[in-house]
Write a structure and sequence with these properties.
The protein is an alpha/beta fold. Helices cover 36% and strands 15% of the residues. The structure holds phosphoenolpyruvate.
Length: 236
């Protein structure tokens, strides 16, 4: 059973998110889909939705606080309002565009772990590291586990090479297999692949040994495409 996650990033409004989620929820119910599905809308679109238990709505980001004076951030008070218990941590855009440090990420991770959240934790190397070979790539990735309790029961990992995110360039099956099998040897947790996964390659990628599903940005933002992605992976 594949885990399929959609990261909206800074896309969709409150209204379009609601119609997307309703459409996907109906599709999942009518087709008896048992994939585990995650949808990460922008924080302004978080809400309570009528969805089956195999669909989870998560936060793309939140601060390590219940509430307080952290301008521009949200905390668990805002997530609790909608019963949200899933969070994405360590996404490459937060690491590299918003300069979130490993220590900030680890602090956030510990905070949400203590509260029992399902954490989708992202790791992945930039292009110059990938070009230095597998050993350097793994070294870089392992540093992203600094301060992270990898035995946490509600942890899902996502390997997302930075050079493949939002670029249209997907890692080769061999790249994915090599990195996934190395991570899997060390950490026994579900491991998703992310980075330009598309409707027409999601089945192939999710069938690679050591791949338990996909975290998808760009190709998942149209409800029909996301439904097709779910359809294409429902028998895995
Ligand atoms: C992502 O945002 O996690 C992602 C993998 O994006 P994309 O599918 O657009 O590369």
């Amino acid at each position: 059973m594949a885990i399929i996650a959609s990261n909206f990033k800074t896309n969709h409004t409150r209204k379009s998110t609601a119609s997307f989620i309703n459409e996907v929820a109906t599709f999942v119910e009518e087709n008896n889909i048992d994939n585990e599905i995650f949808i990460f809308p922008p924080s302004t679109a978080l809400d309570s939705f009528e969805i089956s238990s195999n669909i989870k709505i998560g936060a793309q980001n939140a601060y390590a606080t219940q509430k307080g004076s952290f301008t521009g951030e949200i905390g668990t008070s805002q997530l609790d309002e909608f019963g949200i218990k899933t969070i994405l941590i360590g996404h490459s855009e937060r690491r590299h565009v918003l300069n979130e440090s490993q220590s900030e990420i680890a602090k956030k991770y510990s905070f949400y772990k203590e509260l029992g959240y399902t954490i989708v934790y992202c790791i992945g190397e930039p292009l110059e590291v990938k070009q230095s070979g597998l050993e350097k790539t793994l070294e870089y990735i392992y540093e992203q586990f600094e301060g992270i309790d990898t035995n946490y029961e509600n942890l899902i990992l996502a390997y997302e090479p930075v050079w493949a995110i939002g670029t249209g360039v997907t890692a080769t099956n061999d790249d994915i297999k090599n990195v996934h099998s190395a991570i899997k040897e060390k950490i026994d947790k579900p491991l998703l692949y992310g980075g330009s996964v598309k409707v027409n390659n999601v089945n192939e990628i999710c069938s690679i040994e050591g791949v338990d599903g996909a975290l998808i940005g760009t190709a998942s933002w149209i409800a029909d495409d996301f439904k097709q992605i779910i359809e294409n992976t429902k028998d895995l």
